[in-house]
Every structure is written in structure tokens, then in C-alpha cells.
Fold:
Amino acid sequence: MTETHGRGATGKRTSASRPALAAFVIALVAVGAPALLTAEPAPVRLAAVDPAADAVLAAVPESVALRFTGDLAAREVHVTVADATGATVSAGQPTLSGGTVTTALGVGGPGAYLVVYHLLLDDGRSISGTSRFAVDPAAPPAAPNTADAAVALADTGHAHVPAPDPLNLVLTAVAAVLILALLALLFTRPAVRD
Structure:
């Protein structure tokens, strides 16, 4: 009895096609499972700012520090501190050390200050927000940053998660349909003709 194209003389499939099918399914799972199981990175959120949100200080601080939670791998970091007239008082580029972004401040006087930050993370997400503090020479010395101030500030920041790429979604859907069609063809048996 001779076999042609995986079928015996009776037209039925031979057992030789089952190992090939099993190898195909195993390869498909081995390649596809890691892509489906990749974990999303921990969210990055503002945990605290120094000086604290809405703090009233006796003098302009030397720097502003923003502390973040999560894996802070930033591609770009922008921090600007401006006084009530809109003049920038931040001096130089902000520095990133661990989960803390620090920017030095130049000379400033009494009044309100606005801290604006924007971070573009390596994974494409962005984090941005604002904080305010004031300088009043008659104010008592500033209290240390409290957990309540940090929580209130964390609620003012927001994160942007990029929308899924439509082309990738379409290609993934097409690939899934083709794989299902292939599996359906492999598992269906033609009617045996007498």
C-alpha cells in the first residue's frame, strides 16, 4: 500500500500528520504565549513634591524635588517653575536620580509659584501635572512634607497611556483568523468515499 500526501490508499489521514500538527501547535504556543503574557509595567505616579503642594515658605527654596513611584525610566524630563508674573525661576536642566526628579531654582521673590512637570517614559507613556507653593517672608518655617500633602498632590497629576496602534490590532486579528482557519483545516477530515 502506498501513501500520497499524508493519506493512505483508502483516502484517510495517516498518523504521520498528527506529529506535524502537534509540532505546529507547540511552536505556535511557544511563540505566542510570551507575547500574550507580557506584564504591563507598574504605573508611575507622583508620590510627593518638595516643597509640598500649597506650602507657604519664608524664602524661595534652592530646588524643587518630585518623587515618583513605579519604574521611572524616562526618555525626556521637563520641569518648569514660574513665579506669579510667569517668569521662569527654574535654573538649568532637571536631574533624574532613581525615582526623584530635581530642578534647581534661581532668584525669586515673594509671591505664588507654579511647578509644571512632564515626563515621557521609555515605554511611550507620559506623566504630567502641576503643583503650587508660595513665598511669604512673614510665614513661619515650613513644616516637613506630610503624607496628606503627597496624596493631595498625587491626585492632581495624570498619566497618559498611548492608544493601541490600529495597524497592529488589525494585523493581529488577521493573523488570529488565519491561524484558526488553518487549525480548522488541519482538524477536519474529508468524508470517506466508498
